[in-house]
Every structure is written in structure tokens, then in C-alpha cells.
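Quick one, C-alpha cells below. Sequence please?
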């Protein structure tokens, strides 16, 4: 069972391991993941009980999915029920320096976290006014800052869980592989974050985790 991969991605990352078969589960019928002609595709919600049998799949693979599910615990429960093991690749977590898929534009480096030009932890440290002022200072219309703030804090397709919450959820299973991606933070920056949100992990983006 595969979640969060298109046919092309499955061909590139999964098929090289010569599985007997692969089934795609996706929440959205109009998503690229649902366009596969080669693999069986099911439209469904992994946070709910699906029609699959217990241990129906040798492995459940998810890529860039956990940071989007509406209920992490129920999603992991269902993946654990239908699969004998799980492999999760996810990130960035909401608590990491560049937030959680904070991208109001695919091409503008000031509006796309993957281009690494947004201020670190802007989503956790800045108010709507401060974000609007930041974009005003770059010469953008005021509405751009308002849109960015809305995309950060109101977009329903990200769950805004701190990295610690994923770790807690994973510990309900047997973790056999744990690979993290992280960034070092200046001490004063880290102290400010902890004063606002408590003693949390603010440097880990996510990573690759194999669970039983």
C-alpha cells in the first residue's frame, strides 16, 4: 500500500525493489496520485477504517502524508492495521525552521520555503501584522502578507503538529529505523522559541521512519 506517491514516483522509488504488486490510496480523486494507469488506485481516507483486511499488505509506505493527515493517531492505527510494517517519509514538521510546506508561490523565493529565503520560524514567531510588514518592506502589496499568513495558519491541508507529537505517536509502535533531517539553531533563537512554546524540538524537519 502506497500513500503520497504518483505513478512516476512509484516507478522511481518503489518498483526498483520489484514488489509483486502495489496499491495506491489517495484522498483526492483529482490529485496526480489518482491518475495512475499502471497501479490499482483507491480513493479513501486513511484516518478512517478502510475496507482493507488486517495485515493485507506487507508494507504501507507514506511519503509527505503524515504532515497532512487530520488525525495522526487514527492514520497510524489504520496503517498499522492493514500493513505488517510501515515506512514513513515526512517533513517538514510545523515546528521546524521553515514550517510545514509554507508555499504561497511555486516560483517566488520569498513565498516558497524550499528556496530557503524565508525568515526561520517566521510562522511561529511573527504575528499577522509582522508578516504583512515584512512583505511590505520587500515591496509587495499588503494583501500578499495577509495571504501568506492565511496560508500558514488557516490552510486546512496541513496539520500543524510539532515534531515532538510525531515522536510520541511513533513510540506506540516498534521503531526499527529512524533517520532525521535537522537544522542547528542559534541559542538566543532557540531560547525565544522555548519561552513561547515550551521545551520542544524546533530543529527537526522530519525524516524516514520504519515501524512495526
Amino acid at each position: 500500500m502506497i500513500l503520497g506517491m504518483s505513478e512516476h514516483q512509484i516507478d522511481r522509488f518503489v518498483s526498483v525493489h520489484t514488489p509483486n504488486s502495489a496499491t495506491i490510496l489517495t484522498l483526492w480523486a483529482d490529485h496526480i496520485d489518482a491518475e495512475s494507469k499502471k497501479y490499482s488506485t483507491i480513493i479513501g481516507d486513511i484516518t478512517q477504517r478502510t475496507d482493507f483486511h488486517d495485515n493485507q499488505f506487507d508494507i504501507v509506505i507514506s511519503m509527505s502524508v503524515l504532515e497532512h493527515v487530520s488525525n495522526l493517531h487514527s492514520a497510524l492505527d489504520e496503517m498499522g492495521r492493514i500493513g505488517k510494517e510501515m515506512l514513513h517519509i515526512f517533513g517538514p514538521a510545523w515546528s521546524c525552521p521553515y514550517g510545514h510546506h509554507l508555499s504561497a508561490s511555486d516560483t517566488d523565493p520569498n513565498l516558497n520555503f524550499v528556496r530557503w529565503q524565508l525568515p526561520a520560524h517566521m510562522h511561529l514567531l511573527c504575528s499577522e501584522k509582522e508578516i504583512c510588514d515584512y512583505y511590505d518592506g520587500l515591496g509587495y502589496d499588503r494583501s500578499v502578507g495577509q495571504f501568506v499568513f492565511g496560508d500558514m495558519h488557516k490552510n486546512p491541508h496541513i496539520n500543524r503538529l510539532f515534531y515532538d507529537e510525531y515522536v510520541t505517536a511513533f513510540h506506540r509502535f516498534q521503531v526499527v529505523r529512524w533517520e532525521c533531517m535537522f537544522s542547528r539553531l542559534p541559542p538566543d533563537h532557540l531560547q525565544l522559541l522555548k519561552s513561547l512554546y515550551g521545551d520542544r524540538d524546533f530543529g527537526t524537519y522530519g525524516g524516514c521512519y520504519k515501524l512495526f
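Helices lie at 7-13, 72-82, 122-125, 128-137, 142-153, 163-170, 187-197. Residues 57 and 83 are 5 Å apart (CA to CA).
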